[in-house]
Amino acid sequence: MFNKKLFNKTLDKFIMLTISIVVILFILYPFIAVFIESLFEDGSINLSKLFNFIITEKKLIYNSLLMAILTAVLTTTVTVAIAIYWFISGKRLKKIINATLFLTLISPPFISSLSYINLFGRRGFITYELLHLRINPYGLPGIVFMQSVGFISLNALILIGILKTMDSSTINSARSLGAKTNNIITDIIIPYLKSGIVVVFMLTFVRSLADFSTPAIIGGSYNVLATEAYLSIISAGDINRSALINLVLFSIAIIIFIIFRNNFKNISTNSFSNGDNNIVINKSGLIFNIFKIITILFLGILIIQYSSIFISAFTKSIGGKKHFTLEHFNNSKQYFTTTYVRSIVYSLIAGITSSFLGLFIVYYMQIRKLKFFKFIDFIATLPYIVPGTFFGIGYILAFNKAPLKLTGTVYIVVLNLIFKVLPFATKTNLTTVSQINKELTNSVKDLGGFGLYDFKDVVLPMAKESLFLTFVNGFTSSMTTIGSIIFLVYPAQKLITLVLFDVVQSGKYGVASVLSCLIILTCLLINGLYYKIISKKEK
Amino acid sequence: MKKSKLSLIILLVFSLFLVSCSQKDNTKETDVVTTKNTEESSSLDFEGRTLNVVTTSDAYVDLFNKFAKETNSKVEFLSMSSGEVLAKVRAEGGTPMADLWFGGGLDAFMDAKNDDLLEAHNSDLTKEVDSKYKDPEGYWYSKGLTVVGFLVNNDVMKEKNIEIPKTWADLTNEKLKGEVIMSDPSISGTNYAALKGLLDLFGEEEGWEYIEKLNNNIDFYGKRGKDPQEKTSEGEFAVGIIPADKSAFDLAEEKNLTVVYPEDGIPWVPEGVAVFKGSENADIAKAFIDFMLEDENLEELAKLDGKDSAQIIKPGIKGFDLGLPADKLIEEDLSTFGSDREAILNKWKEIAGSKASND
Lengths: 539, 359
Fold this sequence. Notes:
Order of helices and strands of chain A: HEEHHHHHHHHHHHHHEEHHHHHHHHHH
Low-confidence stretches of chain A: 268-275
Oligomer: heterodimer
Number of helices of chain A: 24
Radius of gyration of chain B: 23 Å
Protein name (chain A): Iron ABC transporter permease
Order of helices and strands of chain B: HEHEHEHEHEHEHHHEHEEHHH
Radius of gyration of chain A: 24 Å
Organism (chain A): Miniphocaeibacter halophilus
Low-confidence stretches of chain B: 15-41
Strand order of the largest sheet of chain A: 1-2
Number of helices of chain B: 13
Largest sheet of chain B: 9 strands, mixed
Structural class of chain A: mainly alpha
Protein name (chain B): ABC transporter substrate-binding protein
Strand content of chain A: under 5%
Organism (chain B): Miniphocaeibacter halophilus
Distance between the termini of chain A: 31 Å
Number of strands of chain B: 9
């Protein structure tokens, strides 16, 4: 017994120490490496570089901020509409909305912006062929629209998760007092969602700021910081300038993040529980109908967008007309290689490791109330608010020489994937863990539990849902990420997104569509399997 | 609880799997060192070794496979733009990211040579290469030429009632305002070649005058090399300035487009090949360059690249017949191709203003 206790305590200490070290080493240290690269010159800090940049490139900064604000406003508005419409609608509709949102969490890179041009371009299917418009789709409106389409699904799932936890009694009593749907929405539901809305707004703002690929494809002459950071490397091999731009992006994001940080504590994201609270609200009223239209429009856009990927996987155009073909499918066979298996393995490792790592961090911070882990949690959030290129450059600068030489190994890629998705894992797990009743963990202690017992007996069983969600996010984004790993991968460690990048670059859109469908299917399959394993064990 | 154990086990198994994989690679590599200095013979044997290549696209798989088969080695490749290659190798303090650098605009290769990132290679086969297509000291070779042409969307032209442009001068037609697209020449090697070629063709002064006029018809410069091709074929623009190769002609057939070689002069740029300095398998990379220079392999390469006979670096080798008039290729001054790059791009940025990527 004594030995067991000792063992447990040692294990506890060991885990704490390991987590602290890896988070500092693989997140904080690469960040510091970027700061040093961008601000240090001949061994001393040179802030004037930063100020000069801000003065000469204020247009770029203005453009980025404007884009991020507009995207955040549009995304948040639509997200709120969808979440509330979901809340009021019936069981079957709920399922359909949920499924569509879930499916569209997986968006293979490049393809969505290309399908935007196909649909809304000067000769796009919707704008030109259906509506006979000849509009210019490039520039700010295009970016804002496309980014929003990409961000809404995840955000809507977050808000829906919050609504699931809503106590039905308030609404039911309001109803029995004769409250109209309009009033229920404005007076009860929206106030309830308040911190969720702030979080969604903030996350979108930060992600929009960090997105480089959408503005690169459809920005036209509208230039933003994130794209510029990437292009400085591609066009001139100028890693220093890129690091500097990334530092500016980071500064903006961190300010926003610190201001709104407290809102995170109040939200919950149990988006996969089938919580069925008996709320019946009249499906009427102006606001309800507006929300309904927004939701239908948005789901329609998603469906068209994903079908267009599917259609271009199986069609070929000859002389301007489309024909059915299996050619792309046959051509993509050569890509079913070790690269594909490797991507799945890396993504599994990233998904599983990050979700457990995230849970441990939250456990030490929230249940054990260790002050130091507040700091660790803060560091663990950093990768979320910077563009992928920042994190990639950080790794390459931090780990290119002994004793920490990791460049060229598989580890640098896998580690980068794990820590890139860790922020989502800590945030999601936090919302679950904050709901754990303190009495539960105390009672474990009263019953003689020590060290990690409360983790094993209380936290872990309660965190199943959020572990699943973090796994899904970790796996899916690792399967589709490109910005951070493009600088780290060596020829023998190629991943499927890089292959997709290649195929898109060579203009083989048919094959690219087949690969995208394949990535979507794989993600669904693995996520489904993982869910099966989890829910089976639950019974 | 059981579930989490299961997940942990899965995780463990995978990490073991990974570790064992990477260890396998390591042992292979150590084997290699011992057999590295075998005598070169007519049939090279690199058993158990891997040639790592950074290249421009996945078009060369067949050639890589053929080399792998002939030399009993393995070839792994990764696609990257030349700017990324340079940035990455510099950021890693000169540690080579691969053994062989295959394809990409020559200016990057010239930069890399200046930065001391390349290793020279000279052999009997490289001697035969025309001095136009190689570095005098053997630091880089050309694998073929990219030539610049127009991709024209017939439907849009018909709708706008404009004749298909035949010359660079035609592109400044006022009717084409907002209908011409080219990529940012600091990103696209092809479009930099266009700029440089036009300056060589028209001369400094007249050249810049022309570029200003062309700029009036351009709404924005694409941020990806593929933009002009992609957006012209989708009908977003009437004319795109593109690398004219077989794939462009194929696309033209598919989507009702026309590929035009400008009659007043065709800009071109050699694509580079080089060995990275201090790379682990530099010997295989050198063997690959010799392999590439063999007639039948150059022919194969031309096929994969979709090149006309006039785009091949050795005379007498047959490529596709794309109707490329060799006499229309501009007399270019390659010696200033790399050294003038920054000055040319800066001047271009002044003209392009906010249409370019860098304000």
